[in-house]
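Model it.
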Amino acid sequence: MATYSYWQNALNGEFGAVHEGEACPGFYRKRPHRGATYLPVAIWEQDGTMVAVVAGKAADAGEIWSYVCQNPITEAQYHERVKTGRWHDESEAVTASLAPPRHRIGGNNPPDDPAEILKSQIDAASAGVADYAEIKDDETAAKAQSLRARLN
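Modeled.
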């Protein structure tokens, strides 16, 4: 029977040995691709087999393990992300900047011009800067850092 010790230790910054394809149960997050927002991941043992769910969809726990093992989250953070669609430490402006470009009225396709797409992403991220003029707690600081990283 699998234990949650890897995940519990990782939450405290103590990462154990990782073996490709040998997932450990717990709650994690992963990016589907570079520059995308994180997706919530749950891994657990069921009938002697490790199973996983990524953003509500079944996934192969062994295949995703190396992508999630360094990104543990609490169970509460997992459920909050599933419920609200937001991360506790990610600015809403970051999430908005990662969304696909909006279509123009009467158009069925997003912009093809990479410069236009980039401008749209920068504008969406920049819209959140004023939210962090004053930072009073760690959660707000984490969100401000996520926005700073996105703008960089």
